[in-house]
Every structure is written in structure tokens, then in C-alpha cells.
Amino acid sequence: MPKIDVTKTDEVAPMEFLAGVPKERVLTQLATAAGNEVASGKLSHPESSAALCVNAFGWFLDRPERLPPLGTADPTRWQVESVTLEAEVRFPWRGGRHPWLDVLIRTVDAYIGVESKRYEPYRGRPNVGFSQTYWRDVWGPAMNGYQAQRNGLREGLVQYRHLDASQLIKHALGLRSAIVRLNEENAPQRTPRLVYLYATPRAWPTGTRRRIAEADHRAHEEEIERFAEAVAEDEVRFEALTYRTLLEQWRSSTDADVRAHARAVAKAFTP
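^ that's the sequence the OP posted. Answer follows.
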């Protein structure tokens, strides 16, 4: 199995895709998203989080039923219906900006949004910003933890240096809105989950190969734990997972092709 399949378009620099990843379908899904990853050339940057994410999950676009259980999901109830890259989850109103998830996984009983990070947590303080629309009374009482974090960030009572908590809050509120509509339209009912999937690289990929301080890794982990505890009782279940753990789970799959894909991801990127 060849490690890398290299392709390019007329508009962007060459982009590396792992063997088995449907590159045209991936590029089509990315082109419709708000992040402008393809046209901007960001996808080809050596620090690109999107490059890792689309290669890892893009393999499952045409074979969603082969995606192993994610994180702590119950293997006996795991049945994937679809995997989508760069999926918009809309709030219960027209117009304005709505969250975009890096991956959206739909199973028979869950609606799972994945936010993927690679080098971003180690670059410095994330942006904190909410428009006034986030204070509309539409989220329901089972989202009080996320709303309390939102309020604390705006008032300066809650602070994060490595974790982009404001983005996670927006994603959780978007998932909650989407699941309400979905559960009104369909049976059986599905549970919303938000998975924070992050890499743990030890050095930057360019220049002098500067190491990432171990203190920054510890601080990031502590912030994840603090955020998880704050929203533990909410309707949108939050779970954090490292790429290393994810790939270990894939490498223990009974599917030989999934195991080979996990090895290819680990070899081509810095998980």
C-alpha cells in the first residue's frame, strides 16, 4: 500500500493525501466550507490541522460503516450511517454565522461533532468572542454548563490560554440546535456528542525544530479537564481524545485495512 498520493489543482499548492482517501470528494466538501482551507493554500501548510483531520477521517467517507467506535462510545451500539467533513450545524434562526465542525459523524443513536486541533493549542491565547445572538434564550436548561462558561469568558471570570473554549461552546450550541431538529423529524432519538480531538506534537515542524514546552502540554490538558468538568452534566456530552489514542484504537481494529490506515496516518503526520 503506497504511503502518499500527491495531487494538486490549478488553484492551490500540492496537497498530500493518504492512499484510499477520496481526494476529489474531500476537496469538494472543503470547498463548500467557510474555512477557505483549499483556496487559501492553508491545507498544504506543514502545521495544518485540516490536513491531518481530512486524511484521518476522509478514508471513511466512502466506507462509514468501517469507522471504529470513537473514544468511549459503546462498541455494541456503534453503527455509523455517515461521515462528513466540514459540516455546518445551524442555529435556530436564519442569517448570521453558524458553526462548522471539522467532522460530523451520524450513527443510529448519536450525532457526533469533532473539533480537531494540531499545533493551535501551543500558539498562544485563543480568541474569545461571542456575538449578542449567543445570549438568545433558545438553548434549553440542559445547556447551563456551556452557558455559564460563555458568561464567564465574556466577563473575564473564566480564562483559557491553550483551549479555544469559545469555539467549543459555539459548536456545542450548534449541535444542540441540530439534534433538536433531527429528533423532531426522526426516530429513534439521537444523543449529541462533542469530541475534542487533539494532537500532542513535541516540536514545531519547520525552522529549527523548536520543541514545544512540556509545561504547555500540561497546561492544555489541565484546561481540557477544567472545561470538561464544567459541562459534564449538559445535554451535549463533551469528550476529549488525543490523536495518539485514536490511532491506537484504530490499530487494534479487526479490520486489516483500518489498521493499515492508522499506521499510514501516524507515519505521515505528527499525531
